[in-house]
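Q: My labmate handed me this sequence with no annotations at all. I'd like to see what the chain might look like in three dimensions before we decide whether it's worth expressing. Could you predict it?
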Amino acid sequence: TRLTTISIPSNISTIGYKAFYGCSNLQEINVEEENNTFCSVNGVLFDKDTIALLIYPANKQDKDYSIPSSVIEIGTDAFSGNYHLSSIKFPQSIEYVSTPIFEDNSNLTSIEWDVIDYYSEESAASIFSPISSQITSFSFGPNVENIPSLVCYNFENLEHVTMYPTIKSIDYAAFLGCTKLKSFIVPDSVTFISGSAFENCSN
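A: Here is what I predict for the chain of 203 residues:
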């Protein structure tokens, strides 16, 4: 648990599930440039082409993090255990998230979602369910046209939702159970609101 830095040599080609689980003081993961499988960007572990974000160190102390625009996939438990993060931005490139990616992220309260289309077998709800009760702000970026089903399902403390006038549809139960959400301005660009989109938004 006292490890603060891990250096991965050039000959490592496989890192098993939960390889660094419980390394609560880990601040950075470094990879030798000659490694053909993995790389490190600012202490975060990726595959060599930075297409997959694999591990964000548990004790990396940045409060805000923007996932690089090259990333298509986020690995299981990628952000688990980091209690410094307060906000994360998901870029438009994201296509697949291997849930869960969050666990014990006690200070994470804000999400920016700029994903163009998210139709993975893993629903948007499953991405955020471990932190749903602590999110107070959710922003949809300028590239979003469709608000996915269940994306903010049971975000019981969600108070602020922002979006651009690019939104065309709000899918099933997108904001179901957001009991603290007092106002929501639907942009003129929206042509379709699905059933239960705002069900049980009691305020």
